[in-house]
Amino acid sequence: MGGRPQALTVLLVSAILVILASCSPPKPDVTLDLLRVDWQDVPGLRAGNGALQVTPTARRIVEQSGEGGQPNPPLNLAGTHLVVGGDFSLSATFSDVTADASWALYDRPPVIADEFRVEPAGLRLTLQGNDLKIAVFDGTQKKDVTKPVPVHDEHVTVKDPRAPFTVRRSGDTLAVASGSDTLSSLPLGKVFSSGELWLGFSSDSGDFDITSLKAVAPGTTGLHTSGAAAADVQRTTDGLQALAAKTRPDFLVGAAVALGPLTGDEDYAREFVGNFGALTPENAMKPQSLSPQPGVYTFEEADAILAIAKSKGMAVHGHTIAFTEAMPRWMQELPTGSETDRRASAAALLGYISTVVAHFKGHLASLDVVNEPFDVNQGTSMQQNIWYRVFGAGYPAAVSKAVYAADPDVKQYINENGADVPGQRQEALLKLILDTNAQGGHVYGAGLQGHVYDLKTDAISADDLTRTLNRFGDAGLHVRISENDVTDGQGTDAQAKQYATVLATCLRSRTCVSYTTWGVDDRYDWWIDDDGSLQQGHDHLFNNGQPTPAFDAVKHALGG
């Protein structure tokens, strides 16, 4: 009986605390002015006079054949994105819209592959006059990944296109409004499930300004901005580059990277920055990325990758100048029918080279001046691309001399697949390089890609690679293993052994100055099958944030 008053006291105190808590004022909403965050690395967008100014870039991703042209509108990948735990509201006001104005809001960056873009879950609003198209994507892939199909697609009429547009998440509902008018309300589904919001603005054919851009969320949801995932990651003392440096301090171990995962995926950033000492921009320096229209240059995303490399003390290998693939339509269609046409087209191509190489001068250690010059069927005839049609079979010399004029210090390479082992294709590559230099070129060496898509037919033995390296070295040239990736189709043990063989053989030869793997994590290893379906490969040293047996084998080959 003696304990009852104490128990009553505890109950009373608890009740009072509950009442006080219920009477305390709610936390205020969090409001962010997104006009003031970092937009400097977004193609086609400039900040000035209290607004964001958008100009069209017409960025497209062409297919290997040169056909197609899947739109590749930019997002703010290297600058600021949002992190929010629940409900939110974003509003934007457009002004001076001369044609169309698009606003994209995605829950992760898209995956940009060589010939296609994988659209993430998110929302795209496109305003043209008083018509607003609302397209919602849930991140699932339909039959043709190059033609993403929204799960919700509608056109609505807005009363005043100058009124703020609002995208609001409330519980399980996603609403789009113009001013005070709700234009669409639909179930949220899988959209915005990651807790991140990535923003982009673009136009196909006109200009417009964004005069206000705000994010609002209840104070309990933790709305805040976030920068690049790679920003706070450092190279590890037992990473691949650190291990290689113990044997050969001048030897570089690199990987091809894309900006989206480098800035948006903490696993990818940790894997890459922790292990590698060099990078190759996977697609950001190809012609279709740098100059989508004649005289229009979109260096922003490539610059962002190079800025990350500089901040981490990494060397950069540029990829690429002259290439049959990944060319914008304007470059493919330069006229070549007459001598006058060819002179004009030569001036356009040489102008492209001088502009690009001068822009990156001092930031590149090396550069693929010509990429994959021979036919795609592993023969020895040259592809008759625009460079060939304008300059003739000696076009590599014209390209090399133009690159040298713009940057005499960058080490030049001609990069090719299928030349990693002795044979006619290798002899053709060696002859092309020597002939190019005899014609006044400045090619430092060969890039041997090292793609192993089938270990039964593509495997590279230590003996064959040693003979190859000796062959180029005897000719006074250097070699970089430029794009090594290995299938796990015959098992992860065979994959690991092949990876280790190529790197260890390269490391032993003074002719071989660097080794690069074409990718980092299988999370971003996607390809399109013959039937058009999207397939995931398993060819890299990491898989979904974890090291593979191939990584362990490569590390062991370096003494780790």
Can you characterise this structure?
The protein has 560 residues and is α/β, with parallel strands linked by helices. It has a domain at 30-226: Jelly Rolls, CATH 2.60.120.560. It contains 14 helices and 32 strands. The strands form seven sheets. Strands 1, 2, 3, 7, 14, 15, 16 and 18 form an eight-stranded antiparallel sheet that branches. It has an eight-stranded parallel barrel with strand order 20-21-22-23-24-25-27-28, surrounded by six helices. Strands 13-12-11-8-17-6-19 form a seven-stranded antiparallel sheet, with no helix packed on it. β2 and β3 (51-54) form a beta hairpin. α8 packs parallel to α10 (395-406), α12 runs parallel beside α13 (492-508) and α13 (492-508) runs parallel beside α14 (549-557). The chain is globular. Residues 1-5 and 7-21 have low confidence and may be disordered.
> What's the shape?
globular
Number of strands: 32
- State mean pLDDT (0 to 100 scale): 94
Percentage beta strand? 25-35%
How far apart are the termini? 71 Å
The largest sheet is: 8 strands, antiparallel
- Name the CATH superfamily classification of the domain at 30-226: Exo-inulinase, domain 1
Distinct helical segment count: 14
Structural class assignment? alpha/beta
Low-pLDDT segments, ≥5 res: 1-5, 7-21
Helix content: 25-40%
The CATH class designation of the domain at 30-226 is Mainly Beta
Which architecture name of the domain at 30-226 does CATH use? Answer: Sandwich
Rg measurement, Å: 27 Å
CATH fold-level topology of the domain at 30-226: Jelly Rolls
